[in-house]
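Translate structure to sequence.
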């Protein structure tokens, strides 16, 4: 049984919900078709056809892994639904345009979220433009509906209510390590000991399989009071893949507080000289977490940066690879699997906490068997415990115990059976939200608020409050873990363990990809959400491949280097690549040295709901931004050169969230008070007549 395709129907379900919302009986769009009864019937026909397809989705999801024809049917259905959604979104956009332009009476007094009761009617030209496309889409959907019987798909009228369990308040305690007391003591002893031969530097490798708790052990020791007091300088850096000496050097300089913005322009040699000088004569502890590279010459070059430290300096290296541990140092600390007794202690802690085991003897009996099946891996134990901590029915525990997933060969997709069970237990709305997060690279600390805004922009979540609940639920299941210290105050950042990230990638079924890991042009045509790491060469060569991604919904530029911004972005990207991505719902261009945007860019990207151009050098926004009637979130923070906002900003009738903090040159935009849907305004401080003024909270 593959889990790789199951989320495809979860994303599909989300798209259908968006369509049903637009096609509500008393909704805006059906009212707009009242002058054209034939076209009104078309919309009703579309809705009924979609209903007929929706009721077999659950059965199709269950059968797709064992039936390639069902799998192919689901893929074709997703493409057809995407086409229908884009068509309906264009109609909705036209409705919003009519409202924003004030072409009908009493528009200013009506709700900004909906256009109902406005007696809006679309022009004949607009109808002619979409009629053929709408009829073709309905015909395709009808063909797919007629195949249901041949495929043996059954109707399933399950509850569509999305219930989210109350997140546990007792989340995983990173300092609470089960069954690692000996390893912890050995590691601390080695860190505090001085070499008998007077060596200045000692390397201490920690080796073990993924999910065994290597990083957790290193964290506990790194934050131990005796260790803190023993070393004058400490630094932690996650190396991960791919190995990049420049990135590692910058990261370590930032950790020890010796990096400044001028260092961005320095080459590798200059930065390594600075790092070496910063460490010379000091007793330091450096943790290099998640090391994969076994190239000895590259390791030797890196090691040479640390050899001038004071006697007793130490480096901890965590790795899954024995040969890396042997290459870097002697006497590795092996983090093996936990015993059955300790496994049960850990599992019980996270599944039966706040419940008296004596009152649930059957749960304890089944729980011990489940813990045994996790084969001593802490990550697997915590993931399954996160599922069961809110389940009191012993039959639900037995379902987990008896699942056929335990019997799958481990090489099937590289995913731990316990993690597959954890994923399969998620309700559909959490599956799609979790899978979406595969857009982030491994070991990248992602911002909770950004994730929620992206979910909203893509119709996975309706409200920020609901998105926050979903996020906390995923965290309570140990799928997300909080970064202990964020470089940005008041910004909550999280990570996914490498194995959890692998799970999300498999679950996304190529709907979410990272451009650097792209498997080919076919994948680009299939995917809906793409991220890429910001580079230094203008990005055109990297992004020109997106010409084939006409259905792309999310384009996320990720800055993996803290404090690394104002990077060049080719004008060819702005003028030739982005305008072709007309289906985009979310676009991030943060940290680029963008001074201006093409004036007609947003005329092409009219379906945008999330736009982030923070940390850029932009001086003013193009007037065309005012035609983004769907836009809900606009991020302009730290645009130091931004002087004013377009006068017709009030046309952004769905704008809920606006950030303009650290925009010292921005003049007081009085017209912001006309943004009737605005709920959150961050950084509302402006210069007005030479005096400082704060407004709009």
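Result:
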């Amino acid at each position: 049984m593959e889990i790789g395709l199951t989320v495809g129907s979860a994303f599909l379900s989300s798209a259908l919900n968006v369509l049903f919302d637009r096609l509500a009986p008393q909704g805006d769009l059906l009212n707009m078709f009242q002058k054209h009864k034939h076209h009104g019937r078309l919309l009703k026909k579309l809705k009924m056809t979609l209903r007929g397809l929706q009721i077999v989705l659950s059965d199709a999801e269950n059968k797709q892994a064992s039936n390639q024809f069902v799998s192919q049917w689901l893929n074709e259905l997703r493409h057809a639904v995407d086409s229908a959604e884009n068509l309906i979104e264009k109609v909705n956009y036209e409705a919003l345009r009519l409202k924003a332009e004030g072409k009908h009476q009493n528009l200013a007094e009506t709700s900004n979220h909906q256009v109902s009761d406005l007696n809006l009617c679309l022009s004949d030209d607009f109808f002619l433009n979409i009629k053929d496309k709408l009829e073709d889409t309905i015909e395709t959907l009808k063909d797919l509906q007629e195949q249901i019987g041949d495929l043996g798909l059954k109707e399933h009228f399950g509850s569509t209510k999305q219930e989210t369990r109350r997140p546990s308040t007792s989340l995983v305690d990173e300092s609470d390590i089960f069954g690692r007391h000996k390893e912890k003591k050995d590691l601390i002893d080695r860190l505090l000991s001085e070499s008998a031969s007077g060596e200045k530097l000692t390397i201490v490798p920690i080796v073990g399989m993924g999910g065994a708790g290597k990083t957790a052990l290193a964290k506990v020791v790194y934050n131990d009071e005796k260790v803190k007091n023993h070393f004058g300088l400490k630094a932690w850096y996650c190396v991960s893949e791919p190995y990049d000496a420049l990135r590692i050097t910058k990261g370590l300089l930032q950790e020890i507080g010796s990096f400044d913005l001028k260092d961005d322009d320095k080459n590798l040699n200059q930065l390594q000289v600075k790092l070496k000088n910063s460490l010379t004569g000091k007793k330091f502890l450096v943790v290099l977490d998640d090391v994969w590279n076994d190239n000895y010459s590259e390791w030797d070059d890196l090691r040479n940066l640390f050899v001038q430290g004071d006697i007793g300096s130490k480096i901890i290296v965590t790795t899954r690879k024995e040969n890396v541990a042997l290459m870097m140092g002697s006497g590795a600390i092996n983090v093996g699997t936990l015993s059955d007794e300790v496994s049960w202690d850990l599992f019980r802690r996270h599944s039966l906490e706040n419940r008296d085991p004596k009152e649930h003897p059957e749960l304890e009996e089944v729980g011990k068997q489940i813990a045994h099946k996790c084969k001593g891996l802490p990550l697997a134990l915590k993931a399954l415990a996160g599922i069961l901590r809110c389940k009191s029915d012993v039959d639900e525990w037995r379902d987990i115990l008896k699942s056929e997933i335990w019997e799958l060969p481990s090489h099937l997709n590289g995913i731990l059976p316990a993690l597959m069970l954890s994923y399969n237990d998620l309700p559909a709305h959490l599956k799609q939200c979790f899978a979406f997060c595969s857009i982030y690279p491994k070991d990248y600390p992602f911002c909770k608020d950004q994730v929620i805004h992206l979910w909203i922009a893509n119709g996975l979540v309706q409200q920020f409050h609901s998105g926050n609940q979903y996020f906390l639920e995923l965290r309570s299941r140990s799928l997300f873990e909080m970064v202990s210290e964020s470089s940005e105050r008041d910004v909550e950042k999280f990570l996914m363990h490498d194995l959890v990230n692998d799970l999300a990638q498999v679950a996304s079924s190529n709907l979410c990809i990272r451009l650097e890991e792209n498997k080919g042009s076919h994948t680009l045509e299939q995917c809906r959400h793409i991220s890429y790491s910001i580079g230094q060469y203008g990005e055109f060569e990297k992004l020109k491949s997106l010409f084939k991604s006409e259905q792309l919904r999310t384009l996320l530029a990720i800055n993996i280097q803290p404090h690394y911004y104002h990077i060049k972005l080719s004008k060819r990207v702005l003028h030739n690549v982005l305008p072709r991505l007309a289906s985009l719902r979310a676009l991030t261009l943060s940290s680029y040295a963008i001074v201006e945007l093409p004036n007609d860019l947003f005329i092409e990207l009219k379906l945008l709901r999330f736009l982030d151009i923070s940390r850029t050098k932009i001086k003013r926004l193009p007037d065309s931004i005012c035609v983004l009637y769907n836009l809900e979130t606009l991020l302009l923070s730290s645009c130091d050169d931004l002087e004013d906002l377009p006068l017709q900003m009030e046309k952004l009738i769905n704008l809920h969230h606006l950030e303009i903090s650290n925009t010292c040159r921005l003049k007081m935009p009085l017209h912001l008070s006309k943004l009737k849907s605005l709920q959150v305004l961050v950084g509302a401080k402006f210069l007005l007549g030479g005096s400082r003024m704060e407004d709009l909270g």
